[in-house]
Amino acid sequence: MTESLVAQTESSAPSEPSPAPYVVPSGLAVRLARRVVAPARAETQASVSPLTGGHLADLPVSTIDSVDHAYRSAREAQARWASQPIAARARVLLRLHDLVFRNQNELLDLIQLESGKTRGQAFEEILDVAGVCRHYARKAEHYLKPRKRLGAIPVLTQTVELRHPKGVVGVVAPWNYPLSMSVTDLIPALLAGNAVVVRPDEKSALTALRSFELLDQAGLPEGLLQVVLGDGPTIGKAVLDRADYVMFTGSTATGRTVARDAGERLVGASLELGGKNAMYIAADANLKAAADCAVRSVFSSAGQLCISIERLILHEAIADEFLTHFIKRVRAMKIGPDLAWGNTMGSLISQAQLDKVTEHVEDARAKGATVLAGGRARPELGPYFYEPTVLEGVTAAMTCRDEETFGPVVSVYRVSTDDEAVALANDTSYGLNASVFTKDISRGRGLAARIKAGTVNVNEGYVSAWGSNGSPMGGMRQSGVGRRHGAEGIWKYTESQTVAVQHLMPIAPTKGVPEKLWAKSMVLGLKAMKAGRIS
Ligand code: NAD
């Protein structure tokens, strides 16, 4: 396993907060910068660590010409890649699986430095990338193989469904999961035979570039994966405007613009957007387990996780007891900037994110909500740290009732029945993720099916559904269009094609057969197919 980038290692215990001298070795930064398609004398942009506000590296900024160049190179490489057997493509991804583990310490450092999250939360990204690599590398042949379909006239018509790559997939990845969000959408796209042009967010570019280096090392052919850097509205948009298929992750507001542009060009788009996710604790739940899980599910990545829980719906019979367990755990959380295992929450990503969280909490406080825990920034830990915060008495007049906060803030609601809980969970324009806690699993499954969210976890907050790579994941309603994972997560990167071969006689009157007689025989034939349950 590789060394960490900084002096602190995984064996060191979390220390008292101090302005840590985190640096990215200049050799690494220079090497990674070379992977970006940008002019020889490109402008540069500083990457800064939210943990300390300190400078990490300068990376080149691409231009529109760079994006054009990236697409030309990607298109050339794509044709060769698509002609390779799926098994050969899969071997590259299986090697990436191993390389991610081999370079784990370095990747964890980069994720933490760029996102501000804890080491444990960064490790979830390692698990995610490895899991998606393994799943699609092992299953791609199954998902993509030609499939025999029932022909128009059984036996006489032999029909096969084929899957062809779209061509070049354009990916815009956000900053909140620097490794996961940069890599996992690429894996099925590449396995399906596409090339990719990706624009990682500038706040997570170092991690993304290091992971692309690992893909190169795993044997990805030159040219197939092109990387550009630059702001979303210019360079991100240019990437998506040239794509044969659009893969976007970000806010619902930006997702709408991206969808409109893709619609204008009549290309497909997968949009993974925001959420206002609810966890329901039913009257029969194991309250200590639910409280442990709620802490992880609300405050993972300081709440900057699209599937994190922002609403806790409590059955009134257990609400006080649950809150006693939950608040005790929230107050005991260990917050800090250490590049070491052991902390339970890190920093927000930026001043903009800190401002938004502060606004949501202050608005709620001013309008009468009670702050049960947290509710203030912690500048002594780092520039964007904010305490894990629990609010009760949140009403429709308050911004955080319906708007996604995307920070370490959860609102608590009480209900008297399961039906009321389902109605409240569904009382949102979003539909990304949800959770139900109950000891009665069949009741949990029943409640889950009534909640309008793309993933629902029973007795878990988000990890069970997220880690189930064979099953689709994505948003209903304003949370998105399209799915990651499973068959849908790779089929979206393909064009399906039906090839039907007709044998012996046409599906039309043959010479000398009157049309009326032919029509009668067709009706008899179709009736026989219905009776024989041939579908
Ligand atoms: P955002 O929409 O402001 O930006 C997302 C990304 O899109 C950024 O990298 C940005 O530079 C880029 N961008 C901006 N305008 C663009 C344009 N016109 N064309 C192309 N790219 C453009 O969102 P954000 O606040 O940076 O990210 C947080 C949001 O992302 C939250 O709403 C969160 O829920 C969502 N998110 C969703 C998922 C998911 O899987 N559903 C995962 C992570 C984050």
TrEMBL record:
Domain Aldehyde dehydrogenase: 42-499
Catalysed transformations (reactions): succinate semialdehyde + NADP(+) + H2O = succinate + NADPH + 2 H(+)
Key words, A-Z: NADP, Oxidoreductase
SUPFAM superfamilies linked: ALDH-like
UniProt EC number: 1.2.1.79
CDD domains: ALDH_SSADH2_GabD2 (cd07101)
Top-level class of the enzyme under EC nomenclature: oxidoreductase
Source organism, top-level taxon: Bacteria
MF annotations from Gene Ontology: succinate-semialdehyde dehydrogenase (NADP+) activity
One Pfam short name: Aldedh
Residue ranges, annotated region (Disordered): 1-20
InterPro entries in alphabetical order: Ald_DH/histidinol_DH (IPR016161), Ald_DH_C (IPR016163), Ald_DH_CS_GLU (IPR029510), Ald_DH_N (IPR016162), Aldehyde_DH_dom (IPR015590)
Active site: 272
Family, as annotated: Belongs to the aldehyde dehydrogenase family.
Name this protein carries in UniProt: succinate-semialdehyde dehydrogenase (NADP(+))
Origin species: Luteipulveratus mongoliensis
Lineage: Bacteria, Bacillati, Actinomycetota, Actinomycetes, Micrococcales
